[in-house]
Amino acid sequence: MRLIVGISGSTGAIYGIRLLQVLRQEQAAETHLIISEAAERTIAWETSYTADDVRKLADHWYPVGDIGAALSSGSFHTDGMVIAPCSVKTLASIATGVCDNLLARAADVTLKERRKLVLLVREAPFTLAHIRNMEAVTLMGGIIAPPLPAFYNHPQSIDDIVNHSVGRVLDLFGLDVGLVKRWEGMRERV
Q1: Which of 16, 65, 139, 161 has the smallest count of CB within 10 Å of its CB?
Q2: How far apart are CA 43 and CA 61, in angstroms?
Q3: If one looks up domain 2-172 in CATH, what number appears?
Q4: Is the CA virtual torsion 76, 166, 178, 180 positive or negative?
């Protein structure tokens, strides 16, 4: 499997980082990484990683300004793309087809080639513009998957919450790496 992983500048850079870590650890996919300029700042602010540390987790990485990179063409075969997290700015670019950087262009190519595009949109509350942009991407075949925590699995840490969201994203690509505690129905608690 070959996946493009994008990290945009909204809060939640750990989702993209953890996704790359799991894919590398499980040898589940060849990864192609794009980090936006804003994401580089967010990574430094929110985590103990640098953008260079994150790039080393990927098999290949591309500068966000390299609009002519291999990923900008539908002839470069991938199984899909995940943007984790996806800022509302990146969402808007994808929804409107404004491909002014490689992150938006790669997402646009993913949609036009009818490949799976999963966006972990990070913003709350949503404005009507955000909702309409999510609708537009959904109508084009994209999957909007905000990283909303599940509590039936009784998370004990932020890592538990992040892992569950990452596991659910990987489920969308048919990859079960054991991160998700599956819902088994309601049972009486004693």
Answers
A1: 139
A2: 16
A3: 3.40.50.1950
A4: negative
Dihedral over Cα of 178, 179, 185, 188: its sign: positive
- With tokens 């300004």, the residue in question is 65
Domain ranges in the chain are 2-172
Question: Bridge partners of 86?
Answer: 121
What is the layout of strands, in order, in the sheet containing 143-144? 60-63, 30-35, 2-7, 80-86, 116-121, 143-144
pTM of the model: 0.95
Residue 30 CA to residue 160 CA, distance in Å, equals 25
CA separation, residue 167 to residues 19, 42, 101, 149 (Å): 8, 22, 28, 12
**pLDDT per residue over 21-63, tens digit each?**
999 999 999 999 999 999 999 999 999 999 999 999 999 999 9
Q: Tokens at residue 160, please?
A: 């538990």
Structure confidence by residue, pLDDT tens digits, 158-174: 999 999 999 999 999 99
In angstroms, the CA 101 to CA 99 distance is 6
Among candidate residues 106, 14, 24, 81, the one with its CA nearest the CA of residue 58: 24
Rounded mean pLDDT of 87-94?
98
Q: Return the amino acid letter for 14.
A: I
